[in-house]
């Protein structure tokens, strides 16, 4: 009897996750210092193979899962926004909420979200571990999505009040708030190395502030029957809680460094 050829066994999701995200180039034509300049990658300047070994993200997502999830989230957002526009929701909202908290958030947040997409892209290039760069690529796409959704909601509101145009203008005027915001976000986002951004923004700001802000705003919007903004902030928050975890393994490396050889620590 002829033996039946065995079916080729495809790697499981967990097997190909590691295979795909922990795949590293071996640079031959440039030195590691040229490929990952310390000003862009940050300190401690540990070798690539050490980062590769130590960086272990708590939230693992493949590109296929990412695209499927994001597509479903966007479909939900656009369906709910359409329902809000057709039912003329904006005319029915409580003016204190609409002209106050909602207006403040929707005009202040989109441009900082855009700056975050730049810094996520910096980690996607200069983070010294494949898994870190992979998750930052998703993070950068997340932040562009957040910018676009919130600018779109501001645009829907311009007919009600022209001050909603500040979601575009916010960083280009010299009021006290834009000056303070520019300075703060230059320090924590636009002017940072990959390691600094991972610690100051994804670990500290996004874990400690952004997640809480979006959860509280979703609850507040829900109470005032603003189902469009409630859906939007919940949708954004699910991205934030994922990429907020990029910084945790970076922070852990600061404690792991004590276990490394003295030689490596001195070089770093
Ligand atoms: Fe964001
Ligand atoms: Fe974020």
Automatic annotation (TrEMBL):
<protein>
    <submittedName>
        <fullName>Toluene hydroxylase</fullName>
    </submittedName>
</protein>
<keyword id="KW-0503">Monooxygenase</keyword>
<dbReference type="InterPro" id="IPR003430">
    <property type="entry name" value="Phenol_Hydrox"/>
</dbReference>
<dbReference type="GO" id="GO:0004497">
    <property type="term" value="F:monooxygenase activity"/>
</dbReference>
<dbReference type="InterPro" id="IPR012348">
    <property type="entry name" value="RNR-like"/>
</dbReference>
<dbReference type="Pfam" id="PF02332">
    <property type="entry name" value="Phenol_Hydrox"/>
</dbReference>
<keyword id="KW-0560">Oxidoreductase</keyword>
<dbReference type="InterPro" id="IPR009078">
    <property type="entry name" value="Ferritin-like_SF"/>
</dbReference>
